[in-house]
Write a structure and sequence with these properties.
This protein is mainly alpha-helical. The protein has five helices and two strands.
């Protein structure tokens, strides 16, 4: 064995330990600069948002004080309005109250008698009575649906 290849085995212990190459002051400076740049970017974005908001307010037309603040959606509506459109003071829209009103109306309809169509003599009955009738009589037969004939089926 050559002495040149194994020279590190005879070195003292202090020389075999790896020295730290981390430069703490440079890392600290980088962190400070990164935080400053992040703050500057956030402030710039805030300024741009405020500028855009001011432009949007300037471009919006000034509404007359007589204009109702609550406007009814055009037909067809997905939900019936439970409250009339206010004339004067604004009544805040409360979805929970609207939901409770709809559920109360449905519950009242499910548990009462009433006309579906007077012209066709069709009524609705309470759900419990309808269940009893179905249990007693069974499900009524339905009318067979007629298929519209096409020219292809006639040939």
């Amino acid at each position: 064995m050559d002495m040149d290849t194994h020279t590190d085995t005879h070195k003292p212990l202090e020389e075999k330990v790896e020295r730290s190459d981390v430069n703490i002051p440079i890392i600290a400076k980088f962190a400070v600069i990164l935080i400053i740049v992040a703050l500057v970017v956030h402030l710039l974005i805030l300024g741009v948002f405020r500028l855009l908001e001011m432009q949007a307010r300037k471009d919006d037309p000034q509404l007359s004080p007589l204009t109702p603040t609550r406007q009814v959606a055009p037909e067809p509506r997905l939900q019936a309005m439970q409250q009339p459109v206010p004339t004067g003071k604004e009544v805040p829209f409360d979805p929970q109250t609207l939901r409770q009103n709809i559920l109360a109306e449905e519950e009242q309809r499910l548990n009462s008698y009433g006309w579906v169509s007077k012209n066709d003599n069709v009524v609705h009955i309470p759900i419990q009575d309808a269940k009893k009738l179905l249990a007693e009589r069974g499900i009524p037969p339905t009318k067979p649906q007629t298929q519209p004939q096409t020219q292809e089926s006639e040939q």
